[in-house]
Amino acid sequence: MKGNAYFQVKQTPSLTPFIVHADQLRIYVTGTEFNVNAHSKATDIVLTSGKINVTLEKDKRKTVYLEAGYTLNVDTLHNELITAKTNTELYTAAWKLGEWHFSETSLQTIARLINEYYGMEMIFTSPDQRHLQITAVVSVNDLSTLIRVIEKTLNISIQTQNQHLIIINPQSRQL
After folding, report:
1. 116 with 140: CB under 8 angstroms?
2. Residue 73: left (phi > 0), alpha (psi -120 to 50), or beta?
3. pLDDT for 72-116, tens place per residue?
4. What is the pTM of this model?
5. What does the pLDDT read at residue 170?
6. How far is CA 161 from each of CA 6, 76, 164, 167, rounded to the nearest angstrom?
7. Domains of the chain
């Protein structure tokens, strides 16, 4: 698969595993829910329930057994599979309810989601902006509302230029 998909696979013991091929990964599923973002070689997987195992196609010895609540990222430079604990509600709410559920979510995480879902890159004019946090529920289908919520909640301004969202702190604006 290429792109972004959310899978709900019902466990069926008598059948062979459901297998997803996403760029350089092979994902073996026996009954679970997970998100695969395979827009690039740096594929991301978020497991929301159940268990899966993921194998790097180039090196079948590199296999990770992933449990619910974890994400897997491919380090394309070193051909490694990296896992980390994550907030799966960001993904399940987005796919099932069409909403982003942010709970003390960093602007850096939101910037990554904006890039993945809308193709817009967020430009930080200050390193501290990456660590700003937001708690909100916003429709996935409305980028302009998401931008307004971020601006009002964090007291910042976001300017759009081409496919970039440039963050400006109000106190740093030129008069």
Report:
1. no
2. beta
3. 988 878 888 999 998 887 777 777 788 888 888 899 989 988 887
4. 0.66
5. 62
6. 31, 30, 5, 11
7. 3-85 (2.60.120.1440), 97-172 (3.55.50.30)
